[in-house]
């Protein structure tokens, strides 16, 4: 039987903390509750199997930003921060410190559950596609060659097609995972990692730009296919 995800909920409001604990438990998750930073640190020492932390930003004593910094310093689990609606600057700082997502109060437990599942999918290492931005050598597909040493794309007439850093990372991800459906979350994780913003749609824009460079007809792509409800698939055979 697959082990339930273990979630640590940290919030000084008893009602919110207990409500989230009960809701997540009903949806098959193991939940540990902490009412402040001191309790959270104690739980982190006691348990090494937390899959995600739901962390309130504003708490008496040590605040969420300091706790987020601590979790990142020990290479801890992903973090979703709970923030008040008007704390945009603090949300940005939280993301810069390594929070993986945030949700503004008031929120519905259902929305938080959806965010938790999305972050867990992105952070999961099970069946994770190969990260490929440090690949070496030359890879060939269709009439193209991707030179990973020079980080450039050449056509069959040896004409160099310039690639931005984002375009190179994306194409490198595709050529390392050919004929495999990659979700937007997986592509974000491969190409940007923790630099990616939550629910970032920039992958769609990058795919569109990349298609304009490698597809004969970008409006009817054959190399980078959209898989509705799934993500994208790189269809050609890739050889060295």
Automatic annotation (TrEMBL):
Q: Which UniProt keywords apply?
A: DNA-binding, Phosphoprotein, Transcription, Transcription regulation, Two-component regulatory system
Which residues form the DNA-binding region?
136-236
- InterPro entries per record: CheY-like_superfamily (IPR011006), OmpR/PhoB-type_DNA-bd (IPR001867), Sig_transdc_resp-reg_C-effctor (IPR016032), Sig_transdc_resp-reg_receiver (IPR001789), WalR-like (IPR039420), WH-like_DNA-bd_sf (IPR036388)
Task: Fetch the SMART domains from UniProt.
Answer: REC, Trans_reg_C
Matching SUPFAM superfamilies: C-terminal effector domain of the bipartite response regulators, CheY-like
Domain named Response regulatory: residues: 6-120
Q: Can you give the residue ranges of the OmpR/PhoB-type domain?
A: 136-236
Superkingdom, natural source: Bacteria
State the protein's name. Response regulator
Instruction: State the species of origin.
Output: Parendozoicomonas callyspongiae
Lineage of the native species?
A: Bacteria, Pseudomonadati, Pseudomonadota, Gammaproteobacteria, Oceanospirillales
